[in-house]
Amino acid sequence: MIRKLLLVLLTLGLVMGTWGAGPTLAAPGFKQYTDVADGYEFSYPLGWVPVKVSSGPDVVFRDLIQTTENVSLVINPISGSKTLDDLGTPGEVGYRLSRAAIAPPDSGRRAELVDAQALQKQDKTYYRFEYAITLANQQQRHSLASAVVHRGKLYTLNVSTTEDRWLRIKPLFVQIIDSFQVN
After folding, report:
1. Per-residue pLDDT tens digits for 116-174
2. Does 59 fall in a domain?
3. In the chain, how many domains are there?
4. Cβ of 61: how many Cβ atoms within 10 Å?
5. CB 126 within 8 Å of CB 146
6. Measured between alpha carbons, how far is 142 from 160 in angstroms, rounded to an integer?
7. Residue 171 lies in a domain
């Protein structure tokens, strides 16, 4: 009898766990942003608001109080049916991203790739990058980014803050980056 009850409960748990397996729910203190058309989602903190942009990122949110803290997602086409691994190692891709987008030549910005690593999520390879950035006005910033190839495009989620807030805000940024996924 107990065995039969356990089997029923296990089956029910499996069915309920996969039923309606749609967008991921945001953790407490976060809202979920899902773009069904482009096939990605991530969580961002409560108290962050959307920022209208006319070109560049697909979406941008910033903190309502600490307006220099933001998250953005950029989608770029890539040639052929390349994978993230085809684009290079995490270090190579992170360096190229820093030179092409974060601190391009003649921008007056400098970006140091602090860390680069590969992660697996749901059978997809994601690269995670950490940057220390100096803006043209010498302001120091810190960013985390995550990149993945999906549907022939490179998706890059970036979160950024001033260097003086970095250590306090890093756990929050890690949660944002960890929540990012394509589907």
Report:
1. 999 999 999 999 999 999 999 999 999 999 999 999 999 999 999 999 999 999 999 99
2. yes
3. 1
4. 22
5. yes
6. 6
7. yes
